[in-house]
Amino acid sequence: MTLRDEWGINPPSWVGSDPCGDWEGITCTNSQITAITLADMGLKGGLPSDIETLSELQILNLAFNENLKGQLPASIGNLTKLNTVILDGCRFSGPIPATIGSLKQLSYLSLKNNRFSGPIPPSIGNLANLVFLDLSDNRLGDSIPVSNGTAPGLDMLNKTKHFHFSNNQLSGSIPPQLFSSNMPLIHLIFDRNNFTGSIPSTLGLVKTLEAVRLDRNSLSGSVPTSLRNLTNVSELHLSNNKLTGPVPNLTLMDSLNYVDMSNNTFDASDIPNWFSTLKFLTTLMMENTGLQGQVPQALFSLQNLETVILKNNSLNGTLDIGTNYGDQLNLIDLQKNNIANLAPIDEGSNYTLILVDNPICEGSQNNMAKNYCNVSPPNSSISTTPSNCADCSSGQVASPNCKCASPYTRTLVFLFVSFSNLDDVNYYKALSDNLTRSFQSKNLPVDSVSLSHPSWSSSYQLEIIIEIFPSGDQVSFNQTESSAITSVISNQTLEGRPNSFGPYSFLVLYTNSGGSNKAVIIGTAIGGSVLLSLLVLVGLYALHQKRKADESLSGSILLTGISNSSASGPQLKGARLFSFEELKKCTDGFSEANDIGSGGYGQVYKGILPTGQMAAIKRAKRESLQGGVEFKAEVELLSRVHHKNLVGLVGFCFEQGEQILVYEYVPNGDLRDSLSGKSGIRLDWTRRLQVALGAARGLAYLHEHANPTIIHRDIKSNNILLDKDLNAKVADFGLSKSIADSGMDHLSTQVKGTLGYLDPEYFMTQQLTDKSDVYSFGVVMLELITARRPIMQGNYIVKVVQMTMDKSKDLYNLDDILDPFIGLGTELKGVEMFVDLAMSCVEELRDKRPRMGEVVKQIENIIQIAALNAGTNPLSTSASYEEYECKDSTEDGYSRPFDYSGKGF
């Protein structure tokens, strides 16, 4: 009962006071609780210290409960029968308690993706039965502990097969004592830390190793020759370190299929002969490694070779790929070298060759090479769901068996895979078929599994969207079933994974509830991808334990800043401070009747202010409260952004433990609802042009007249609202970023956005620019003329238009995909120009896209040419974005305005 009260849940099956009475997620033996498996159940609070009373507990799986927080109690060490602990994707913080070393039966410990800090407890070395250890994606620091005769260390773990420590703050050298011939390690995952010093030669003693990831550290010195003893290693990642000396000789490592040693400072060297001896090699990445001379033709004869990336070296001479290349060859990237000539290319070849920034691409020295002197970003829209399934109703998608349902949707992030060609659907079919059988063998109500949109993250981890569909007549999984699925796939012992795929983590993509569309971070951080990749990741919530301290201090700062214009308070222009009682009164006590939307941040209520103005009032949930400094920065940003085509901030409230934002009320919903017919509003061609112009003007203001520049980062039809006169207003700045005057035209930031609207170059480089908004706006323009969602049945609207359009025909041959409601019996003048403009906005390379100011001018020109609203000025319905000026500026670029329809919080 204490746990039920602490976690704030009460599932329907939790009836009575006896948890052994068929409570879901609770397993008992002889009336004693032996397993708690409540993954992804919305648990809140912490892990109480009196959990030690569950003395027979063997399995504790609380993974992916994002509101579980606080420190792990030391009393967890008294649960001496525990053999499995999985706390992935929660928000536990502070040190990992040393008492965890008392769990002598523990074989599986996964604390991935929390906020644990401090050192790794040396006491973990006492876990003699530990097989799986995953501490990735935390804030752990200091060096790796090893035994010293009096204290234990990780070198004592003689049964452990997995060391997963990536993406922490571990430092110092990797201790040579850590490795010995007794260890059965198969995965050594140490990437993205702060390790220094040399790679210990003792690593070569662990001959059971199959994967080694030491990339993205600060390791130095030569690569030890003992690594050649690791004949079972198939994955070797040493990139982005400070390694020196000769390029290592890996001749004896016959199992290698993936090698990445890019961005190190090896001695200048010709391409080693051993490159051509690795018969299982699929991927060779040696960017910026000092290679010189001519590329040997023998390299391309490897029959399993898929990808060769040797860019930014000093390779020269004539490139001769020959005709004996392997039939798996997919990409040869030799950018930024000194290659002067190209031998004839086999006409039947289907690989991609990139020779940008080589002498051969200068002028017209070699006409043949012109085909290889441009870069086109890769686009993989592979899906294991057939493309010929019938369209499903809104909110549902087709399964591999063409059944419409709302699937359990996640992104699997594989730490490594044996292949690099993302376009081979056979890899994904094998995985989806095996996973389906695995789920069904565990009596889960799963009909099928779909995998789609594979892409590479910035750290070369494979990311795949997985959709799990319910069986029978079900259209969705209930909470119990979703939790059971999460519990299964959070355990790395999940069966049904082909050898091509290594260990994984996973991300929540969508959680749909009550009409809201919420996305939360669970799992490792999303990195780069292309076009149809991973998507909205919203909501960094503040720590609960800091809230009360921040509240009293920052509340006084805010109030002082408003009353006397103190420099420490928010600099407000036109935003009013409301009392909580005022807002409570104008919403009739925040009644359900006035509830017009909800999301991860909170509820939105319609209210009538004392002035008689209608307003949308967004009230933060308790668990979503920010600290005072963050709330202050948000209010300041919103209060200085003023434009007719942006949803405006009316005021805010910051008292009685509340954080409330008050916005102008926008009555006609969002553009997506109008295009789909859901709102009952039908937009003709005239009005669609006006909507496009209004939204473009709002964006142009943010990019070119706000100071500093603001990038919206989540432009989509759901975030363009229509007022009573159907004028467009850009809304939901929850992902916005500002570019301060730093001399840079971009921000390096984690990729966020919405599926189908994301800028591919932003995905690939993680460099956010105003051109990222331009790309998203181009997708909205295509929505305006087709009324199609960006992605329908696996088809991407940009690609559909590209493949369909024919400029030699009327309406560019787009008749069949134009929205039939767009014309309403009138001639569609200017559609071709509108399509040309949209396609320029969605150019793959950002330098080819126009700026929003140029887009505004071109839409104005299209409206004039189309001679709309004959007898009146067709531009009179919306003021130019240049008529407004930025009122103020802040250094912070975050803001979270409302979207009253419940989308985009």
Automatic annotation (TrEMBL):
Its EC number is 2.7.11.1. SUPFAM superfamilies: L domain-like, Protein kinase-like (PK-like). ATP binds at residue 618. The chain crosses the membrane at residues 519-543. It is found in: Membrane. It is a single-pass membrane protein. Residues 590-863 form the Protein kinase domain. Its main location: membrane. Gene3D superfamilies: Phosphorylase Kinase, domain 1 (3.30.200.20), Ribonuclease Inhibitor (3.80.10.10), Transferase(Phosphotransferase) domain 1 (1.10.510.10). CDD domains: STKc_IRAK (cd14066). GO terms for molecular function: ATP binding; protein serine/threonine kinase activity. Keywords: ATP-binding, Glycoprotein, Kinase, Leucine-rich repeat, Membrane, Nucleotide-binding, Repeat, Serine/threonine-protein kinase, Signal, Transferase, Transmembrane, Transmembrane helix. PROSITE patterns: PROTEIN_KINASE_ATP, PROTEIN_KINASE_DOM, PROTEIN_KINASE_ST. One of its GO terms (cellular component) is membrane. Pfam families: LRR_1, PK_Tyr_Ser-Thr. It is an enzyme of class 2 (transferase). This is non-specific serine/threonine protein kinase. It comes from Rosa chinensis.
